């Protein structure tokens, strides 16, 4: 028994030694932080940038407005650190943050989500510019704050925005959600509808009211563009 115990002790020590040897090997060191120029010239970055441009063209969007950024964007939210996959701006620019782990399928989903934000921003801008009895106000009047809040989101990500909402009352469609409640439940839920439709196709099972609102926004966006 004693011998057995000694043998086990020896085995444990040699196992520890072999593990330490692995830790000391150069490939086990943490990856060095690459300079932006190094990332931008890496074959994987260049390939992903091409894939992204092809996807943007497929979506019928302006390729010059979408960039693949070598910068990693992390943000703190509810005490946790998150890495953002993309960002869109009211002027139509979209930035996708390069992630070596991101598959082409996820790149497409990310783009679908961000492009929906751009369309939402455009319709929101037109809505806020017209009179309170204008055609957009009339068309979207049925989507009352209480009705939307009762549905909540369509994905884990969009539900996080509903949970994080800090406004006194439920968010209003086309309001400046981020300023009013520190999250964007409506804007993000509609972007997640677009992502689901892209990922799973038009027959995806999704909340009917959000799908209807998503379609209405895209219809009005198309009308604005052809006007
Ligand atoms: Zn988003």
Give a quick summary of the entry.
The chain has 227 residues and is mainly α. It is 58% helix and 9% strand.
Topology readout:
Elements: H1 2-24, H2 36-40, H3 43-58, E1 66-69, E2 73-77, E3 80-84, E4 86-88, E5 94-97, H4 104-129, H5 135-140, H6 145-151, H7 156-164, H8 177-181, H9 185-200, H10 208-226
Parallel strand pairs: 1-5
Antiparallel strand pairs: 2-3, 4-5
Bound molecules: zinc ion.
Structure description:
This protein has 227 residues and is mostly helical. It folds into two domains: 1-30; 36-226. Helices cover 58% and strands 9% of the residues. The protein is built from ten helices and five strands; from the N terminus they run αααβββββααααααα. It has a three-stranded mixed beta sheet, with helices on one face. β4 and β5 (94-97) form a beta hairpin. α7 (156-164) runs antiparallel to α9. The chain is globular. Mean pLDDT is 86; it is low at 1-29. Bound molecules: zinc ion (ZN). Zinc ion binds at residues 113, 117, 188, 191.
Defining traits:
227 residues, mainly alpha, three-stranded mixed beta sheet, disordered N terminus, binds zinc ion
């Amino acid at each position: 028994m004693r011998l057995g115990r000694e043998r086990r002790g020896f085995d444990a020590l040699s196992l520890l030694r072999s593990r330490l040897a692995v830790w000391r090997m150069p490939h086990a060191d943490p990856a060095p932080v690459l300079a932006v120029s190094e990332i931008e010239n890496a074959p994987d970055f260049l390939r992903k940038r091409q894939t992204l441009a092809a996807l943007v063209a497929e979506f019928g969007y302006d390729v010059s407005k979408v960039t693949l950024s070598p910068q990693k964007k992390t943000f703190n939210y509810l005490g946790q650190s998150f890495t953002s996959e993309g960002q869109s701006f009211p002027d139509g620019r979209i930035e996708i943050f390069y992630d070596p782990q991101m598959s082409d399928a996820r790149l497409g989903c990310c783009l679908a989500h961000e492009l929906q934000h751009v369309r939402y921003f455009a319709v929101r801008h037109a809505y806020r510019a017209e009179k309170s009895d204008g055609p957009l106000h009339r068309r979207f009047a049925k989507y009352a704050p209480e009705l939307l809040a009762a549905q909540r989101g369509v994905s884990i990500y969009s539900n996080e925005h509903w949970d994080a909402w800090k406004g006194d009352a439920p968010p209003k469609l086309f309001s400046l959600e981020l300023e009013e409640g520190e999250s964007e439940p409506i804007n993000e839920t509609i972007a997640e509808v677009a992502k689901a439709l892209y990922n799973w196709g038009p027959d995806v099972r999704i909340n009917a009211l959000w799908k209807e609102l998503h379609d209405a926004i895209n219809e009005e966006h198309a009308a604005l563009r052809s006007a």
